[in-house]
Amino acid sequence: RREDGTVIFYADIIAATLFMLTRWEETVTPDRDEYGRFPAMASVAYKQGFLDHPIVDEYALILRAWLKVIYPNWQPRSRQFEVKLSHDVDHVQHFPNWRRGARVVMGDVLKRHDLELAKENAINTLARMANPRWDYYYRGIYKLAELSKAYGFSNDAFHFMAAEPGPFDQGYDIQAPFVRECIETLLQEGFEIGLHPSYNTYGKPAQLLEEKARLDAVLGYSEYGGRQHYLRFKVPDTWRHWEQVGLTYDSTMTYAEYEGFRCGTCHPFRPFDIEQNRELDLWELPLIVMEGTLRHYRNLTPEQGERRVMELARRCRQVEGTFTLLWHNVSLNQNWTLWRTIYERILGKLAVLQG
Question: Which among 71-80, 130-139, 215-224 has the top mean pLDDT?
Fold first, then answer.
């Protein structure tokens, strides 16, 4: 601070904020992975070692602190830290038909030599044929809701698909009675329902609109948000498409292969389209951690994953932000045994952190 009362910042925090929030680098860097996604390792944040810091929010707190020095009577309003649990429902059934179930059971016996798993899958296949509500993927949706209520979380978002079957999409029928029953139950219990657009909606706004219309018909209303399947997102095109079809918020912005703060923030914000020089009419709720990132991409143990989740959650709390966590319903099955226990422990710790 100089004698005349002015404050000098030796970093351009305004330009840095614009750089991070607009994701400008993704529009000029050609790097893409096999799914057409901008990879974490191509980002400045990863290369410079600050991907796991909400740098935009940290800059904002520095600016706020200095403004309070300059204007001592100013009383800025603090924001309450919040946990936002979200669940992408890629599958409502482990085996959509008996042929798929038979192939898996044979694989359990002949390839994996796991008779216990074969037995479980055989029972589940027969149970599904009798009543799809017995499928443990389907029951996993209810289990996630049950756990959230047990730990005091009531604002979970469940994102359902409304896609045709495809190589990357199970393509379950959103109009099926047992699926509608699940959605209605979640709504009655106060949870949020959103859209999980299919793999092929990437770059195809007409298909995105078609899938949204199917969910609109089930819900009876059209204003809600969601998240792209496989986290396939192109800046700024995908934001524009979501605005175009009337979705209210997106929560895709993280990297599949590395957790952290892709946009440099854990606060909801309105995206700015740097090519069209305008603010878009929707919100971005940045995703901070996906359980699949920790297990499949980063190969962390459940205990390491738990520590990582809590480390990032505490950083969100320090900047008065929103910690958004994605946990799929399929991640409560037998193949995720230890992670199921860890998830419950994480919920307990997040509940304490949120107060």
Answer: 215-224
The percent of the chain in helix, strand and coil, each rounded to the nearest 5, is: 50, 10, 40
Q: Could you give the CA distance from residue 273 to residue 282 in angstroms, rounded to a whole number? A: 11
Cα–Cα distance for residue pair 241/222, rounded to 1 Å: 15
Q: Is the pTM of this model over 0.90?
A: yes
> What tokens were used for 174?
């959103």
Q: What are the residue ranges of helices labelled H in 51-204?
A: 55-70, 98-110, 115-130, 136-150, 177-188
CB 135 within 8 A of CB 141: no
- Pairing assessment for the beta strands 157-160 and 82-89 based on DSSP bridges: parallel
Largest CA distance in the chain: 80
CB 338 within 8 A of CB 328: no
Q: What number of other Cβ atoms are within 10 A of residue 93's Cβ?
A: 23
Q: What letter does residue 325 receive in the DSSP assignment?
A: E
Amino acid in position 41: M
Q: Residue 34: which residues within 8 A CB-CB, separation 6 or more?
A: none
What is the phi/psi pair of residue 318, to 5°? -60, -30
Q: Which of 20-24, 115-119, 147-151 has the lowest mean pLDDT?
A: 115-119
**Alpha carbon distance 248, 226 (integer Å):** 8
Q: Which residue has the tokens 């009419």?
A: 281
Q: Over 60: is that where the pLDDT of 98 sits?
A: no
Do residues 57 and 268 lie in contact, with contact meaning Cβ atoms separated by under 8 Å?
Answer: no
Q: Give yes or no for residue 182 having a pLDDT over 70.
A: yes
Task: Name the residue with tokens 């047992």.
Answer: 178
Q: What is the pLDDT of residue 114?
A: 81
- Could you give the CA distance from residue 321 to residue 344 in angstroms, rounded to a whole number? 22
Residue 45 in contact with residue 56, Cβ under 8 Å? Answer: no
49 exposed, middle or buried (CB, 10 Å; 0-12, 13-18, 19+)? Answer: exposed
